[in-house]
Amino acid sequence: MRILGAVAILSISGAASVVANPLSDIFGFKNNLTGGSAPETFLYFSGFDLWREGGSSYGGVQWAPGGLNSDGFTLKLLLAGGQYLYTAGTTNITGTNFLGAALPGWRIKRGNFEIKVFAGLDLQHHILSPVDPNNALRGTHAGLRVGTDLWWEPTRKLMIASSLSGSTIGTNFGARAAVGWRLFDSFWVGPEIETSGDDIYRQYRAGAHVTSLKYGRFEWAFGAGYVEDNDHRSGLYGRFSLLTRQ
Question: Can you say how many angstroms the Cα of residue 83 is from the centroid of all Cα atoms in its chain?
Fold first, then answer.
């Protein structure tokens, strides 16, 4: 059984992440300032994630009073929802979930290396059809969500990103790692791997991403590849993310 949402990895961004730092980092965006003398303090993000047996969408905001590109306190607010499929005995169960999270955190940057850690309230509501009395996730739950995200540019043309998030609700988790090469001095392209799930469900992904494709004040990211779960269902996945700063 899969708990969806951007912070699950996160992506469920998200992520969440998924969560996953804000979801923008979970999906590979880098928090550079886009111009102007005053530091940007708000980052708005949204996106969706689709695969053969489900999908999720999300939106949210990150606030850093000292500036998005500075060390210090940051707060992420996230709303997400989606559908998922799992098998209980011989019965296929369709779940619909809604997620809200308020995640205070801290950002540390040293040269071309940065890390963010978050921890806060996680609220989830799950609707199951048909009803599965053995699934403790049905209904509304409150728990703790934690996450950490890393971005490193060992050279001007190479980046390494990773993220990890988890919740006490259903003990769900998500993890992602990606490598990217900078093309045309404007965006990153490279491979990515992901895994997510909980006590009884696992999903595995391998694919490629395009990150920080800019148009005006907006940045886009795309991901696609192969997905398989421990119920032996397989297929393709696709992901799209959009963010802007203010």
Answer: 16
